[in-house]
Amino acid sequence: MAPGLIELERKFIPGPGIEERLQELGGTLEHQVTFRDTYYDNSELGLMRADYWLRQRENSGWELKCPGAAGVLGPHTKYIELTAEPAIVAQLCVPAQEKAPAKLIMYLQRFRPQDYQRLLEVNGSREKPQGTKHPDGILD
């Protein structure tokens, strides 16, 4: 959809005889489009429960519809529609923010490893200081 445009979608169930009535009023069927959407979620329906709708439209690609701005008044819902795969992935897989290691911890690790080791021993059963390394060298 072009920037600045608003898509208005109103769903309704036509009553019996509506097609004939439209023809009486001069309406004609210009064209008909049929497509198939395949929706994806996990077994706990986590996306659906969060009002996220991940689908792959036949011959059209991926789309994620997710809640838009909060507080929209009225009998409508505002959704953001993402169609670029990187944007969809970014929306669904928010990576945990990496914490920068504390300067003092880094200093102790590099230049005073015995003091750093003592610090770990003192903390023992408590959490390790922020920015400490696992034995495999990965920062917490």
TrEMBL record:
<dbReference type="GO" id="GO:0042357">
    <property type="term" value="P:thiamine diphosphate metabolic process"/>
</dbReference>
<dbReference type="InterPro" id="IPR039582">
    <property type="entry name" value="THTPA"/>
</dbReference>
<feature type="domain" description="CYTH">
    <location>
        <begin position="6"/>
        <end position="77"/>
    </location>
</feature>
<dbReference type="Pfam" id="PF01928">
    <property type="entry name" value="CYTH"/>
</dbReference>
<dbReference type="InterPro" id="IPR023577">
    <property type="entry name" value="CYTH_domain"/>
</dbReference>
<protein>
    <submittedName>
        <fullName>Thiamine-triphosphatase isoform X2</fullName>
    </submittedName>
</protein>
<dbReference type="GO" id="GO:0050333">
    <property type="term" value="F:thiamine triphosphate phosphatase activity"/>
</dbReference>
<dbReference type="InterPro" id="IPR033469">
    <property type="entry name" value="CYTH-like_dom_sf"/>
</dbReference>
<dbReference type="GO" id="GO:0000287">
    <property type="term" value="F:magnesium ion binding"/>
</dbReference>
